[in-house]
Amino acid sequence: MSCKAIGIDLGTTYSCVGVYQNGKVEIISNMARNPENTIFDAKRLIGRRFDDDSVKKDIKHWPFKVVNQGGKPAVQVEFMGQKKVFKPEEISSMVLTKMKETAEAYLGHPVKDAVVTVPAYFNDSQRQATKDAGAIAGLNILRIINEPTAAALAYGLDKKLTGDKNVLIFDLGGGTFDVSILSIAEGSLFEVKSTAGDTHLGGEDFDNLILAHLKTEFQRKHGRDISNNPRALRRLRTACEAAKRTLSSSTQATIEIDSLCDGIDFHTL
């Protein structure tokens, strides 16, 4: 039996893996954990330079430390009293490895080949870095597919449309916002005609805006600046994300955190 190739959505905030079998795509469930040294948004670092404006902006919001390693960004964490530095490709490879292991456990056989999705506006450097991450994870990346193309395939537009069509794909994700125009020809040929988007307009950015507002609010009320307090920032960010989710279906949300900083409770509406 030939081994199946898997499809991996390597997202900014969440990743998932699927396989085509039994005439359909099956999404394989995986567990989410939250270790103490949690690194996220590696997708916003991969293939970039340390002095990129977007990297400088993101560093201000992250509770983990980003260092300059040969002109490229790397993440520094502390584990068992030792400092360790990881390249963005290494972090992404860990996610890909997890997706690979999840698929292998589900299928019951080894997996070597994979297709990975990336934003349509990813440049050559970012695409190559994603391929490198796959190689580190022990995967043969058959193809890098643009996310809007993958979305169109997932929706079945290649089968539902007759004749040549132009389709607009709207993709608001955890870290990016994409709008792409796809041309779909007879025979299911997809071509990205144009794309526009913002690498910093997604769920994470909503969290960051709420976080920045509440940091200022806490400092105004209690005279404490928590910008350099990773634990307080992490707790406040978690509360911000929960509030954002509540606001998806309600007009207001309450944030209550006991002993946020120096024993001071934080409550706001």
From TrEMBL:
Gene3D superfamilies with a match to the protein in the record: 3.30.420.40, Actin, Chain A, domain 4 (3.90.640.10)
Keyword Nucleotide-binding: yes
Membrane-spanning residues: none
Keywords from the named record: ATP-binding, Nucleotide-binding
Gene Ontology MF terms: ATP binding; ATP-dependent protein folding chaperone
Any GO BP annotation: response to stress
SUPFAM superfamilies for this protein: Actin-like ATPase domain
Keyword ATP-binding on entry: yes
Family per similarity comment: Belongs to the heat shock protein 70 family.
Name the UniProt record assigns to this protein: Heat shock protein 70
Protein source organism: Ditylenchus dipsaci
